[in-house]
């Protein structure tokens, strides 16, 4: 499943500076994005010279103002350290900073959507999974088919753990 992992440096756009408490940066996720695994940002003070790699803090649209208003949270830039707030949107996210630091770059490590299987070209090789994983997927699919089509007393899924070990 390693071939499903991707890491990209995404472009960030400063979209809102009118709020007196925070700046808002917008990020658009790639089209093949499925699930975020890690997120890294490089922040720097507004006067420059204190670049630092850090991670983001996930918040919802309803709860982020608590972290913005509380001066003791790590959202605030103190001693050249801070963590931006990430608010997830439909096709990306917003990153918030307290006007004392800027975001230089944003790197997203994510699980991409697997290639869709169709019957248009059945001879094409499916390369998203390695060979030993494909055999396990085929085995589980066959067991599920036998259970659904055969005798309901035949319970393959309950014995799945025993056959995997």
User: Would you identify the regions where 5 or more consecutive residues have pLDDT less than 50?
Assistant: none
Measured by DSSP, the beta-strand proportion falls in 35-45%
Distance between the termini: 20 Å
Number of individual domains: 2
Describe the strand arrangement of the main beta sheet, using strand numbers. 2-3-8-7-6
Helical content (DSSP H or I, runs of 4+) = 10-25%
CATH architecture of the largest domain: Sandwich
Structural class: alpha+beta
Biggest beta-sheet profile = 5 strands, mixed
CATH fold assignment of the largest domain: Immunoglobulin-like
Q: What is the CA-based Rg, rounded?
A: 23 Å
Overall body shape: elongated
**How do the helices and strands follow one another from N- to C-terminus?**
EEEEEEHEEEHH
Number of distinct beta strands: 9
Return the CATH class of the largest domain. Mainly Beta
Please tally the helical runs, counting DSSP H or I stretches of 4 or more residues.
3
The pLDDT mean sits at: 82
Polypeptide structure, described:
The chain folds into two domains: 111 residues, Immunoglobulin-like; 34 residues, no CATH class. The mean pLDDT is 82. The chain contains three helices and nine strands, in the order ββββββαβββαα. The strands form two sheets. The protein has a five-stranded mixed beta sheet, with no helix packed on it. A four-stranded antiparallel beta sheet has the order 1-9-4-5, with no helix packed on it. The chain is 18% helix and 36% strand. By secondary structure, the chain is α+β, with helices and mostly antiparallel strands.
């Amino acid at each position: 499943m390693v071939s499903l992992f991707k890491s990209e440096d995404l472009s960030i756009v400063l979209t809102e500076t009118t709020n007196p408490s925070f700046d808002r940066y917008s990020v658009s996720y790639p089209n093949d994005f499925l699930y975020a695994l890690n997120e890294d940002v490089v922040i720097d003070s507004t006067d420059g010279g204190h670049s630092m790699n850090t991670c983001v803090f996930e918040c919802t649209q309803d709860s982020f103002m608590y972290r913005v208003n509380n001066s003791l949270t790590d959202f605030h830039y103190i001693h050249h350290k801070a963590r931006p707030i990430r608010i997830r949107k439909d096709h990306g996210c917003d990153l918030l900073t307290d006007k004392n630091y800027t975001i230089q770059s944003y790197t997203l490590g994510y699980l991409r959507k697997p290639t869709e299987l169709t019957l248009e070209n059945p001879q094409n090789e499916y390369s998203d999974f390695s060979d030993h994983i494909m055999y396990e997927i085929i085995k589980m699919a066959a067991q599920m088919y036998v259970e659904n089509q055969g005798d309901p007393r035949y319970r393959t899924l309950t014995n799945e753990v025993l056959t995997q070990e």
